[in-house]
Amino acid sequence: MPNSITRIPIPSILLIRNGAIGQLEENLMKQGFTNALIIFDDFIFETFKTQIEERIISLKIDYFLLPPDLDIQQLIKLAFSFNHYDVVLTVGGGSTIDCGKYIAHSSNGPFISIPTSASNDGFASSNCSLIVEGKKTTVPAPDHGRNLHRNKRQQFPNQRFRTSNFSCTR
Q1: 157: burial class by Cβ within 10 Å (0-12, 13-18, 19+)?
Q2: Does the pTM exceed 0.85?
Q3: What is the mean pLDDT of each run of 10 residues along the chain (170 residues)?
Q4: How far apart are CA 55 and CA 73, in angstroms?
């Protein structure tokens, strides 16, 4: 039996600690990013957009509320409708992060994941789960990116954060 080699993507930046979001602008600037697109789902948009806007003051940031249930063709079309950004960031749960990862992959740019669900492992995967011809399908999206994980459990101990198909008490 031949030896097999397993490839595991390792992010070039991985911040896992309370308050990491407060260092977002500093970390973006350290990487040389000057303009970014931040993608949210509707719940996270309402919950965290203002908090992020208040912390990023020196960079050009555009915010995008991701419509639900986009399929792969719609994501590709969306990726090419945006202006050029140095980096794409996605704040949210698994589905939202997968869509943002694929948008960044389609535009051949770096991606930063800011998961809000405790069970999110998208930062360690070069795949994403997207709707292809009406069915959830695993699609490759080779890692261009960096990842930032935010611990919200201490800040919002009684808040429920919903992700695509389930909710997780934070």
Answers
A1: exposed
A2: no
A3: 60 66 86 93 86 89 93 93 92 88 89 77 72 87 51 39 26
A4: 33
